[in-house]
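Hello,

Our lab assistant flagged a job as stuck in the queue for most of the afternoon. It eventually completed. Since we weren't sure the result was trustworthy after the delay, we are filing this so someone can double-check. Below is the sequence as submitted and the structure that was eventually returned. Let us know if re-running is recommended.
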Amino acid sequence: MGFLAPLMLVGAIAIAVPIAIHLIGRRRARIVKFAALDFLMATKRKTARRLRLRERLLLLVRALVCAAVAIALAKPFTSCERKGPMVTRGPQAAVLVVDDSFASNYMVDGKPWLRRAVEESLRIMVQLGPEAEVAIVRASEGADHPSELTRDHLRLRDQLKRLEPSSRPADTTRALARAAQLLAASSHARKTVFLVSLVAKTGLRSDEPPWGKDGPTLVTLDLRPAKMPNVAVTALKVDQDPGAGSRGVAFDAEVGNFSDTATTVELQLSIADRVVARGSLEVGAGEKKGKRFLAALPAGTRATDASVSVTGDALSIDDRRYVTARVRDDVRVLLVNGDPRTIRHDDELYYLEPALRPGDRDDSGTSIRTITAEELAGIDPKAKKKGSAPAIDIADFDVVVLANVAALPADRVALLADWVRHGGGIFIAPGDHVDPEAYDRTMLPLMPQSLRDPIDTTWGASPDERNSRALHLVKWEADHPVFSDFKGDAPELADARFFKIALLGPTTATADRKVLARFTNGAAALVEASIGAGRTMLFTSTIDRDWNDLPIHAGFLPLVQQAVRHLARKHAVGGSGDHVVGSSVVLPTGDLKRLEVRGPEGLGAVFEGDRIAGRSSVRFGRTEHGGVYRVVGTDQTGATRDRDELAFVVNVDPRGSDLTPAPASALPASGTGGGAPPTDSRRRVELWHALAGLVLLLLLAEGLLVQR
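-- returned structure --
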């Protein structure tokens, strides 16, 4: 034991004061014998003994008070082996980076690992002392970070105690970068980052160091258990199963074993919370393996949620993965060929037909019929009334594509316009057979905007200049369902070259007109509008290679397929639960005037009024938990019902399931931080606080003795 102020021990001399008072108070009185009181002496002896004991106890207490005060002022301390990081007490700036990713819910000794991290963080705050400026930074991806350091340790302690595991993976690099920014704004010389984390390698990015050479001191706490094995369902896809009928679907699950030993897992498939299939799978160490389930969707349902789960382990959040399964809803498309050719590759529909039915497969989800513009005249709305079937019944189709079709007669246009008003969809693409003046005379009821003469951007250009003069698609509506399959800058669309485009004139008598994409010269490329309950869409270039080379780019197939399905108001059946926690989901609004999203844990949102009026889609971003998100919609008639076709699922990011520890080289280099942390392996324990408390107790005892 040592003393920080040993000179204060001189105050121990004050012990002599109560002793002197006690001795002086013991002066003997002169004895005078009085016979009448002799018989009382025997009864008083016991009382006298009690008084002597009280005086001696009072002397002892007062002596101890004097000694304790002196020793407390000398600030005694002792030392012990450190348990945890080496912390310097006093004025400084410190940031505690605490891992609250979903991996922090890993059960260790019956409680989440995060509880252990919180306890250690609280211990560090106590050791830092009240003079330290501190901040708490959460290490989960997308977490909100504090704006400044603070000395309000009580608030920080409450913040730590309320900390719960999130549903997001760790982004340790971003958290460390934010910690460095907070410390850079501090005027303290000593700056330290305490990393209280599982330090999984998936949370660190070596290409983005959080600070340079002069960064803060980094103190990493090793709180990981010796082993952290984990098994997770890392992917789940659903597709049509042609061999099982129209309601048959196939579920392909991927299971990852993030441990150093092989294991056998038990899986089960649930549809609408009912277990319909079970199976087992042996997965090697560090291996991912797939498992297929075949099932049929319940009768009477067009879409439902499903999930595949594995037997529970220490980290349960990634043991289940969700997906939305839908009955295939084929889109019936009527293709009207305005420029048929005997040479197949010169035909107007040479690229469009295989794009809508890849491989000409029955399970493509699209059924098509191709006719010429002359055959379109065979549509007779009065044929059924005459008792004979018409050559072509427009009611048998969901979408009509007019590909380079010359202006139709007014009666044919009126028939198509009436069909669109009752829910049909029409896609119009111009070409050399399209006369803008003729279109203005008869076709305007089907058009979102009138046409004007086309422009050729390569007119007069040499072969070398042709490509440099070409236009490209830009500024497409990324939130629109037509472009939902494209990510980022979408080179499969942006690289397509357009050499000739049709310009547009005044708008027509349609509603909700919107330009979905433009060319680099600012001209509209894709325009959509509503006609009654249906939709019309105008593409201002050809659907073949006469005016552009889009059909030979990878973006052509998803673009035309999504456009046709959007016009038909039908969704593709396949897919995967690729909405991860924290991502935003685009929901088409269609004819809805109110849309409500209901998710797990009370999450949700309501879109109505200005938030939905005039919009073809809305974006929902409160996906903070994995699970099923249902959508309730209200149409223009006021009818409200569950929109199963819009329901979606959200899953945890599989990156966070890999708990493999990062090597030491993956962590950023520790800077000087205004001074190195203490190197002594022993920790000082101050005792004077306890002595001060002892003084208070002794004074209380002295008061009680004096009263008695």
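-- support follow-up --
The delay was a queue issue, not a problem with the job. The result is valid. The chain has five domains: 2-78+688-707, 93-227+659-677, 230-327, 331-568, 579-650. The chain is about 20% helix and 30% strand.
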